[in-house]
Amino acid sequence: MIESHGHLITVRSFKIRIFILVIKDNKFFIKNLKTIIFLGQSDNFKDLLKINQKLGIKTIIITSEHQAKLINKKEINYLIFNKLDEDFKKFINKKTNIDETLFISLGARYIFKKNTINKFFKDHLVNFHGTRLPLDAGGGNCSWKIMREDRIDNQLCHLIDEGIDTGPILFNKASLVPKNCSIPIDFEIYILKKFLEFYKEFLKKLINNYKFELKPQINYLGRYNPRLNAEKDGLIDWSLDSYDLINFINAFDDPFKGASTYLNNGNFGKLFLKKTHLHGGDSSNHPYMSGIVSRHDKDWIVVSTSSKHMLLIEQVLDVKGRNILEKIKVGDRFFTPHNELELSKKNKTVYNSKGLKKN
How many Å apart are CA 288 and CA 238, to the nearest integer? Predict the structure, then answer.
């Protein structure tokens, strides 16, 4: 997600015939679909495969070298292709009839060029996205939602074109994120659950020959969110007001490494904060006090911010994941060097088929 604070092969083939993908009169429907090819990675591959199997659809999973590390190869069969090159195309043509195949991108780390989309995939390429496009195209969905306090989940399927999350929308379904969701792992569990429900409903509609109207995205609205990496993008700016500060720290909590900072002269190295709460029960602050540990209550510390609230922090982890809370003393100060904050903003976080791209 989520950062937002990714061999072979086919799963069993079944004899049930369903339908071939057709786009006609600005409608998207299927006729004789036999195969679904997933491109990318999903935490719920096992559930997706079960859905496909129950519908009698043959499944192939193709992923990148980096995303393959996120897949349990003892449970899921897959093939690695780092590029959509000639070897990839030969394999697809050998294993399936493209006219009877639906390609589904699940966070795929590939560049889809117009010629490939139109001539090779024959426009049978769709993407599932968990935002209200054209708002929030890009990546890091859960972390950006937490930072902005966005509480609306929107499961969406759209055709893929040459842009980034810009193709016409086929189907969407919105819901409210439960009140108890506060960190990325909470959001991810809920969003994955809603995605499975949405995916199953989408396929059932296709099987029933439902004709999806192609809805072009409005090009004068929208926002692109770059991908995030906790190690690089999670540096804490202690000048933020208390609301923005807690949202930022929460955005990089589990399952990510945590938002990061330093203590005093940096002797502990980079530290990662987790299980952090906003607290309004202590005295007021001054911006100069931001980051100062004002009280140590054994199981948590109380830290000042630049505005009204305090932070209650239960976990301060070093690079080896050890909680050093007991080593922190009142009067200590958390800080992040300005040069590191500036560097993190200068260099855009980019993932390719091999993982995080080095600047």
Answer: 10
As beta bridge partners, residue 225 has 138
Map residue 225 onto helix, strand or coil.
Answer: strand
User: pTM value?
Assistant: 0.82
Residue 51's closest CA among 234, 199, 213?
199
- What b/e sequence results for 199-211 when a residue is b if at least 16 CB atoms lie within 10 Å of its CB, and e otherwise? bbebbebbbeeee
SS (H, E, C) 252-289: CCCCCCCEEEEECCCCCCCEEEEEEEEECCCCCCCHHH
User: Rounded to whole angstroms, what are the CA distances from 241 to 75, 218, 229, 289?
Assistant: 46, 34, 22, 12
Pairwise CA distance, residues 86 & 94, whole Å: 12
**Look-up: residue for tokens 């998207």?**
28
- Quickly count: other Cβ atoms within 10 Å of residue 265's Cβ: 7
3-state secondary structure of 39: strand
Instruction: Kindly indicate the confidence band of residue 143, based on its pLDDT and cuts at 50, 70 and 90.
Output: very high
Cα distances (angstroms) measured from residue 202 to each of 84, 158, 172, 311: 26, 11, 9, 43
User: 259 forms bridges with which residues in the sheet?
Assistant: 273
**C-beta separation of 131 from 142 below 8 A:** no
For β-strands 259-263 and 271-279, DSSP reports them as antiparallel
Q: Which residue has the higher pLDDT, 345 or 173?
A: 173
Would you place residue 353 in the very low, low, confident or very high pLDDT band (cuts 50, 70, 90)?
low
58 in Cβ contact with 42 (< 8 Å): no
Mean pLDDT (the chain) is 88
Q: Give mean pLDDT, residues 27-38.
A: 86
Distance CA 8, CA 71 (A): 12
CB 300 within 8 A of CB 328: no
Angstrom distance (rounded) from CA 228 to CA 22: 36
User: In angstroms, rounded to a whole number, what is the distance separating the alpha carbons of residues 72 and 350?
Assistant: 24
CB neighbours (10 Å) of residue 74? Answer: 6
